[in-house]
Q: What sequence folds into this?
């Protein structure tokens, strides 16, 4: 297979700001794999500095992956994934772009979408939420109005005015289902205090309230919270899932964290086996 790539710039309508900060513009990398029959598969890398990636690291990783892919059978997904992991640790967004391109290419060769290749049913598709990033008060109200077609809103928190943000959005969307994500910005004790306030405002889910490595903090919050607690930054790959059993109610799976579609599926199976809920997320 021939590997090529293109860098693109994304200019969202609003700056996407979370507890760690944010950007008004984002650069991603589109990956294309072309087989000997001219069939093309596409994937996308959305590098995130929190996980040590950038456009430059993605392009460098693709350079190391190219010799492997040039002589690989696209159907050998497991061996390709294992080979990429041996060559380079981490670099999950770069690997997920390759995984996406391989699955796209295979699906085109077989004339099947990925969900059918996996034996899934597309009918009970989960509802998607729209994320309201951190912004000034009047801007929050405008963004809620713009998201009127979405049944669920996810509110980014982790500021010194979190309760005010929640009140504004709840008042602007009294009938909406709401979830919150602190992006690891709180202490466990503060998260427990916040959970009472959030429950009073009919929030559904509390996502990643404490730092990523604070598993006992997650457990502390879950044991005292009125809300289900989900892990995001604490759960990157399938081997992380078992460590979180009993500490959270669910996990947020992202290709840019786990590195491949197959690893994401392994995470789903691991979570379900441990009676945990599953959320699928993405990076910009």
A:
């Amino acid at each position: 297979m021939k590997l090529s790539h293109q860098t693109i710039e994304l200019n969202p309508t609003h700056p996407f700001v979370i507890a760690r900060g944010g950007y008004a513009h984002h650069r991603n990398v589109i990956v294309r794999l072309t087989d000997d029959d001219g069939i093309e598969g596409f994937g996308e890398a959305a590098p995130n500095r929190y996980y040590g990636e950038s456009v430059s690291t993605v392009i460098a990783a693709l350079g190391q992956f190219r010799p492997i892919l040039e002589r690989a059978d696209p159907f050998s997904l497991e061996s390709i994934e294992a080979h990429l992991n041996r060559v380079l640790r981490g670099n999950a967004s770069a690997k997920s772009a390759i995984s996406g391109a391989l699955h796209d290419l295979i699906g085109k060769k077989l004339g099947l979408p990925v969900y059918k290749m996996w034996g899934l049913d597309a009918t009970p598709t989960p509802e998607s939420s729209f994320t309201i990033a951190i912004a000034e008060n009047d801007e929050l109200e405008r963004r809620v109005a713009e998201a009127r077609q979405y049944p669920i809103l996810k509110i980014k928190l982790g500021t010194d005015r979190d309760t005010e943000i929640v009140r504004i959005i709840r008042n602007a969307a009294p009938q909406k289902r709401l979830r919150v994500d602190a992006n690891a910005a709180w202490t466990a004790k503060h998260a427990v205090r916040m959970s009472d306030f959030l429950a009073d405002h009919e929030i559904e889910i509390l996502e990643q309230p404490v730092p990523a490595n604070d598993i006992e903090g997650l457990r502390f919050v879950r044991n005292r919270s009125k809300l289900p607690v989900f892990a995001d930054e604490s759960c990157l790959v399938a081997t992380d899932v078992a460590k979180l059993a009993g500490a959270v109610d669910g996990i947020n799976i992202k290709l840019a964290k786990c590195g491949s579609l197959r690893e994401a599926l392994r995470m789903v199976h691991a979570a379900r086996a441990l009676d945990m809920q599953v959320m699928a997320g993405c990076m910009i």
Q: What stands out?
A: Residues 2-116 form a domain with the Enolase-like; domain 1 fold (CATH 3.30.390.10).
